[in-house]
Amino acid sequence: MTPPPALQLEDVSASYGSFRALFHVNLTVENGSAVALIGANGAGKSTVARVASGLIRPSSGRLLISGSDFTGSAPHQIARTGVALANEGRSLFASLTVQENLSLAFRNAPSVTDPDAAMNSAFALFPQLEERCTQQAGTLSGGEQRILTLARVMATKPQLLIADELSLGLAPLVTTQVYEALATIRDSGCALLIVEQHLDHALALADEVVAIEKGEITFRGDPADVGEVTGGLLLPSGHPAAIDEPT
Ligand code: ATP
Asked: What is the residue with the minimal CA distance to atom 19 of ligand 1?
């Protein structure tokens, strides 16, 4: 029997107070596959990530993880199922070394049974961390701090990683490295929900692309069918607005 998908949002709506940010969103991430969720500023991408990781409770609809209903569950209960959220926040222990930050994370991660193996996979994903393993995290560059944050999450081998705008503010070479690391963990069986505004890397990695606009899903399909991006809005190839450039 085929196992249920890693993540399903079924007819999810969500609000911030009286402001409704999501309208009847349906989204599925199959086991071991990568979905890129794309859209303009304020479209609702991060809200989807927050619903999927339990930070926001949907006002209606259901959140299913590996087929079980986690609607309304707390983030730590969802994390225990192997769902991890990686975003631009750093939240490192500035006075601890790179290695100490990683050790602490691996000791506390329910999915990690072998902290040494997790450390080795963190260093394999991002070799610069091994070079800097005795350096205090607070003295790393901004890009290195972000990589340390990501290594901390990726090396725990989550079932599903929700990657929210990971390329934001990163140098192009570092972004490439981050996407190579995402490809590595996807190939080892981790499902990915990649939330991005910058599309090149996300589309190259994704098995499926889903576009959101003003809280509603407007497109889903093969990344190869994505034609053009105008002002951050995704338009499938053949869409009239993708052809008629505004003057
Ligand atoms: P960006 O790429 O700019 O981060 P996004 O697609 O991730 O955008 P969201 O952060 O999901 O967009 O925001 C969706 C809508 O919800 C926006 O209109 C935003 O202003 C609103 N919103 C987000 N967070 C809050 C909040 N805490 N309180 C009120 N409104 C919010």
From this structure: 42
